[in-house]
Design brief:
Number of domains of chain A: 2
Structural class of chain B: mainly alpha
Number of helices of chain A: 6
Radius of gyration of chain A: 28 Å
CATH class of the largest domain in chain B: Mainly Alpha
Strand content of chain A: 25-35%
Largest sheet of chain A: 9 strands, antiparallel
Distance between the termini of chain B: 29 Å
Number of strands of chain B: 0
Order of helices and strands of chain B: HHHHHHHH
CATH topology of the largest domain in chain A: Immunoglobulin-like
Helix content of chain A: 25-40%
Order of helices and strands of chain A: HHHHHHEEEEEEEEE
Low-confidence stretches of chain B: 101-105
Low-confidence stretches of chain A: 77-82, 93-110
Shape of chain B: globular
Number of helices of chain B: 8
CATH topology of the largest domain in chain B: Rna Polymerase Sigma Factor, Chain: A
Radius of gyration of chain B: 19 Å
Oligomer: heterodimer
CATH architecture of the largest domain in chain A: Sandwich
Number of domains of chain B: 2
Shape of chain A: elongated
Helix content of chain B: over 70%
Mean pLDDT of chain B: 85
Amino acid sequence: MSEHPDIRDLLGPYVMDTLEPHEEREVEDHLEGCASCREEAQDLRLAHERLADLAYTTETPPPDLKERVVAGIPRREARRRIPSWVAAVAAALCVLVVLGAVLTPDLFGGGALASASLSPTGRAPDAGGEVSIQDTGENMEMRLEAWGLPPCKSEQYYELWLVEGDDRVSAGSFTVGESGQVDVRLNAPNFAGSYTEVGITAEHDKDPRASDIKMLSGELHEL
Amino acid sequence: MDRVEDEVLVRRVASGDERALSGLYDRYAGLVYGTGMRYLGDRGTAEELVQDVFTSVWRNAAGFDPARASFATWVYRITRNRATDLIRRRKARVRTVDGEPLFEPGEMDPSGDLSRNFDVAAALSRLTPAHREVLVLAYFHGFSQREISDRTATPLGTVKSRTTAALRALRETMSFDEDRWSSDE
């Protein structure tokens, strides 16, 4: 099939019936004598028909419907991935309570669910950091300690992101002074524990998306 | 959320991630709404169907088992069942003077065309952004190859070859999906 790439490139628009008349004749002349391209065209025609059928059935919903759908969903306590050892420890603590052991309140405090060591990019080779995600009992919290970051100038700030594949959700922003160090606690989304990576970008505008200026990144590991 | 798999998004929905629900909405709401318009016949009920379906996805995401069926199959079944409920409810309200229902409830989607549409929507969401763009502009917005070339500032010849490559990729993804889930049905 690769011996006639120009014709083969036209097979998509051909099955969609969107070629210029002279191109269409050219393709049809070729198909008469080329079994492999006929087979390819048949395959593409099936994809075309399925897609045309999907487009026929699909209609654009009113623009505000999505907002109404999201506003209408029942709120719930988010599920979190609880490591198996947490469940084992909880069970052990219950046994101790039953036995009348004296337990300090700290033992019931929320522990870290996941953590990440942050590695630098070329933009700040001496930078580093640690992130941990903790369940405080009332909400999820991310603790960030980082060092070696360039101090922020006016309008500049850093943003911490939860990352999985191409998907990113902000976990909050912070600034860094002359020390280049930061130790902050940020309110994390309830589903923070379901992401696989964290990253820090340098930002300088109000664009809610992550900038391309990546400073630190690391993989989240459940504890 | 380009190219994050449906099944990953459902897992996040189960964790309470509204953005993930929003991502699934972007992929399937047009099809659910179009289904409502086709089978239920009016905008208000079609909107009700969309709300019911995505509320059900939100409520039941934790019970979704990707080993048993794709998300597309799952959301198709929810859509079909909710649409059938709405049809029955409406028919129950429309009665003759003798109190009999005006219509008998009919089977929805006996040919399986609607089910296949959900599978194609899933396959489309898995294409690269460049491939998806040319197909969406052509099929869902009705643009000609030349108009797509103008809108995307891409040479016409590239648009044609990209359209071919995108249809080929869609066909391959559809085949993969059919093989992947064929043992389920």
